[in-house]
Amino acid sequence: MKKLLDDPAEAVTDALQGLAAAHPDLLTVHHEPTYVQRAGGTPPGHVGVVSGGGSGHEPLHTGFVGSGMLDAAVPGAVFTSPTADQVAAALKAADGGAGVLAIVKNYTGDVLNFETAVELAQLDGVEVASVLVNDDVAVEDSMYTAGRRGVAGTLFVEKVAGAAAARGDSLEAVAGLARRAVGRVRTMGVALSACTVPHVGRPSFDLPDDEVEIGIGIHGEPGRHRIPAGGARDIATRLVDAVLDDLAPAGGEQVLLFVNGMGGTPLSELYGTYARAREVVEARGVRVVRSLVGSYVTSLEMQGASVTVAVLDDELTALWDAPVRTPALTW
Amino acid sequence: MKKLLDDPAEAVTDALQGLAAAHPDLLTVHHEPTYVQRAGGTPPGHVGVVSGGGSGHEPLHTGFVGSGMLDAAVPGAVFTSPTADQVAAALKAADGGAGVLAIVKNYTGDVLNFETAVELAQLDGVEVASVLVNDDVAVEDSMYTAGRRGVAGTLFVEKVAGAAAARGDSLEAVAGLARRAVGRVRTMGVALSACTVPHVGRPSFDLPDDEVEIGIGIHGEPGRHRIPAGGARDIATRLVDAVLDDLAPAGGEQVLLFVNGMGGTPLSELYGTYARAREVVEARGVRVVRSLVGSYVTSLEMQGASVTVAVLDDELTALWDAPVRTPALTW
Amino acid sequence: MVTALDADWAVRWVRCAAADVRTHRDELTELDRLIGDGDHGVNLDRGFTAVVARLDGPDGTRLATVGQVLQLVATTLMSTVGGAAGPLYGTAFLHASRVTDRPVLDAAGVLALVEAAGEGIASRGHAVPGNKTMVDAWHAAVEAAGPVVTAGDALAVLRAAADGAAAGALATIPMTATKGRASYLGERSAGTQDPGACSTALVLAAAVEAAQAADAS
Amino acid sequence: MVTALDADWAVRWVRCAAADVRTHRDELTELDRLIGDGDHGVNLDRGFTAVVARLDGPDGTRLATVGQVLQLVATTLMSTVGGAAGPLYGTAFLHASRVTDRPVLDAAGVLALVEAAGEGIASRGHAVPGNKTMVDAWHAAVEAAGPVVTAGDALAVLRAAADGAAAGALATIPMTATKGRASYLGERSAGTQDPGACSTALVLAAAVEAAQAADAS
Ligand SMILES: Nc1ncnc2c1ncn2[C@@H]1O[C@H](COP(=O)(O)OP(=O)(O)O)[C@@H](O)[C@H]1O
Ligand SMILES: Nc1ncnc2c1ncn2[C@@H]1O[C@H](COP(=O)(O)OP(=O)(O)O)[C@@H](O)[C@H]1O
Ligand SMILES: [Mg+2]
Ligand SMILES: [Mg+2]
Ligand SMILES: [Mg+2]
Ligand SMILES: [Mg+2]
């Protein structure tokens, strides 16, 4: 394992130090407990939007702190949910008097720690609503699993909620829009290589040279099954089909198509995959009206990608288009 | 080799198809010969700013086409300079009546093809000025080399030139500012792993697990020497020292510090490296007033990073801060 | 025969557990790498290291009851471990501390401790035996310890619980996970021991170790 | 003895060169991987494939002089190869076409062809012998071919040029590059043959092959 790191135990702290130093206009980093807050705090009277989870998915979530998206983000250790007291501190800090929305990716660790944190913040008089993101169609949502994971679709939910909060919506309204976003976004991913967690020092799974993992999450966990390594067209077709089979669009819908890199995939491959994915989406009678291509919800240096489709309506489109200024997403 | 590609010979075209489909508001892609042009073309009366080079460095250059940066970009095959007729077509297309600035990275292939292209465009009555970017301090600029390479500092030159053109500067003024930018920007890079050119199918060099290449370029070429793999602090110190020794700041200068990923490096490692690099820069009495952290000038999926320092003055700072709207850089 | 276990035992337990977690950190992490996300050993090691640091600090000097020790463990794990294991182990020790707030535990007290811990985890994680989680180990511990309590030997109860946990952890190997990250793997999760069940067995074995040290002294 | 080479020979030359470049594509690319950026074989293969496609198309039917064939090669390489090799080989064939615009070349004409090509490359790339570039092969070709021309055998001149190029290419192995990408490696460039010099030797050997086919027929 070779990485641009010093002590693996300090890797998260070191990265946060750099984030704070590079973006003093956008955010500040708090310590003991650790969380990242928007510079200047939540505007008074606005709903605070908070998310968090294990590190290793950068820019998610810390890179989305700023105006128009997250008011605070809580990074845990690599691939490890933050602790409840970290999350509680961020929830309290992000309260601008109109309450706070907690956006939680559906993992046992995140759910348990956010649950406790919400109770702690509420004890301190902060009004908190939660929304659970579970966009990963690779996992069957059945009694035999912990339920679908929250993956790249989280970006869409955070953007929509942040924009709703920025225009002054109430906590109930922001939470409602975030839930609407969750209901309309689906993702499926593929890994060409595993990633190496710094303190583990070896790849998170072993993958032969001629196979890819279909249905991976974003924690270096293996996927649902392996298939022979096909080309971009083959993979894009599998991912889009899985996503659209689940969304079951009637046809004629307008969608956001988001091709996300897992961290180690060149941008050119993501654009090539986007081209293939778009062909498949449009062949099913769905219109792509918004696009995002890049490495936004990653698994360290994993090679691979995910395809996310979000079904838009006029309001969600307007919220997606609304101005945003964060280290990783700006328009 | 596993990549999200279909036919390696079509990889550049496939990525361009995706780029065009994802950003119709920002750019269009022309074929036969291939170049990328800003949507709507160069505003009449404005200087056109054009760059190009081999593919595999995305988002450089095609991802910087839009308003406030490049009016056209010319992608060659992977790591292969585009042909002269491609470049000539882009130069002609980017002429808004006020002439065109060609920004050329200093590689024999780029220089030769741009030279011919400039002659061809001038034959067609287009006024063209050229500026050669050679920011890589890893290469000694002596009679024993082809001269210093153009690497990540190219982004700074393109941003400055694009902003100058956008405010209506003359060709002479835009070229002068671009040359001033070239004179004040220096870069040094490190590779932790090699990259694999799609049609080659094997890594561009072989690097033992406990060594890193110092002084790499952006074409998967080996560096000047190998050193035992140290941590982020060790590497950042070496890179910053090489850059600042060359720039020889008197102290008190205001600089842009740009930590660039080579394609396969997680963003968190880039921020950690930025934190270390900034400490070293500031310990030498130089003030970091602008920052950029991300994978902007890449070598496919290579793991590694480069550190770029640009010495700012009021005008260069204003041009850096000026609005830009491109697929990869927007503010 | 050890009829009673006190706060000193609890402190020794926690120190033993911390040492054992450190020793087996990479094994736990490897199990989690195979069917989870490869951090379980590191998570617990970070937490127990923090616990020992607090025991060595001013907080460690005022611990008069078993419950006080366990409460310190609970709050420290909750604020340092993160992940699923943090709140789960935290809740286990918190619930256990509530039924052990006295200077000395007898055999029935030990059983109550193990029961409260196991129930805490099950209620927090909504898991039942057979889901291939640490609940399988805790459940087996309680089942094994129950019948032994009438003999009145606190160490024997503890030993039965630890042996039960070890057996319960091994029994997770063939299971297909239906809770936690391993459930994402579906049938591919079968064949590997659940990391949380394995750490549970470690932690309960450390309790026995600590009690044996008392017995010998 | 072959006293004259015509446009048909030039067409055969180009086809032979294309086939040989294809056959040795991966070797050329591997040399370039070692001291450059690993694309030389692919670049030339793309270019010569395009040349053959044009020869097979309508453009290929109206070629009456050697110069016309070489001009088609020049413009096609310039617009399809890219990199350093595109303009360099393009200029070589362009300059060569200017001195060969007649139906048949004698021994002196062959020498003029090789000289013009070599000079074209040297002037375009500002390289001199010893820089470890294709100039080393072209220069050695000209040096070897010059003395043979008085005998009047066009094939012998070509053969001397090709043998010279091969020797010149081998001579680049110990050199430290001071032009092109390999110069970035400094002394680490020594020990590997220059890819462009190697392809030069291939291309000139193809010219001999094509002339021998004429001789036999
Ligand atoms: N719902 C649950 N109930 C009980 N135990 C669980 C549950 N989910 C996970 N676990 C336990 O947690 C362990 C994983 O802990 P750890 O790796 O530290 O956290 P994470 O899964 O967040 O990375 C599993 O091996 C399992 O024993
Ligand atoms: N300045 C130069 N003059 C002559 N030949 C050169 C020069 N620079 C490079 N070359 C030749 O070009 C070859 C490399 O070609 P190629 O790999 O196709 O282009 P690139 O270097 O742009 O990738 C080198 O092996 C060398 O023979
Ligand atoms: Mg975890
Ligand atoms: Mg090249
Ligand atoms: Mg885990
Ligand atoms: Mg090359």
UniProtKB/TrEMBL annotation, chains A, B:
Molecular function (Gene Ontology), one example: glycerone kinase activity
PROSITE patterns found in the cross-reference section: DHAK
Occurrences of domain DhaK (ranges): 7-329
One GO CC term, this protein: cytosol
UniProt keyword annotations, A-Z: Kinase, Transferase
GO biological process, one term: glycerol catabolic process
Pfam families membership: Dak1
EC number, as in UniProt: 2.7.-.-
Domain of life where this protein originates: Bacteria
SUPFAM superfamilies named in the record: DAK1/DegV-like
Stated name of the protein: PTS-dependent dihydroxyacetone kinase, dihydroxyacetone-binding subunit DhaK
Automatic annotation (TrEMBL), chains C, D:
EC number: 2.7.-.-
GO CC annotations, alphabetized: cytosol
Residue ranges occupied by any DhaL domain in the UniProt entry: 8-209
Keywords attached to this entry: Kinase, Transferase
Gene3D superfamilies, per database record: 1.25.40.340
InterPro entries cross-referenced by the UniProt entry: DhaK_L_YcgS, DhaL_dom, DhaL_dom_sf, Dihydroxyacetone_Kinase
Pfam families: Dak2 (PF02734)
Keyword Ribonucleoprotein: no
One GO process term, biological-process aspect: glycerol catabolic process
GO molecular function per UniProt: glycerone kinase activity
Cross-referenced PROSITE patterns: DHAL
Keyword Kinase: yes
SMART domains: Dak2
PANTHER family (alphabetical): TRIOKINASE/FMN CYCLASE, TRIOKINASE_FMN CYCLASE
Protein name per the record: PTS-dependent dihydroxyacetone kinase, ADP-binding subunit DhaL
UniProt source species: Isoptericola dokdonensis DS-3
Source lineage: Bacteria, Bacillati, Actinomycetota, Actinomycetes, Micrococcales
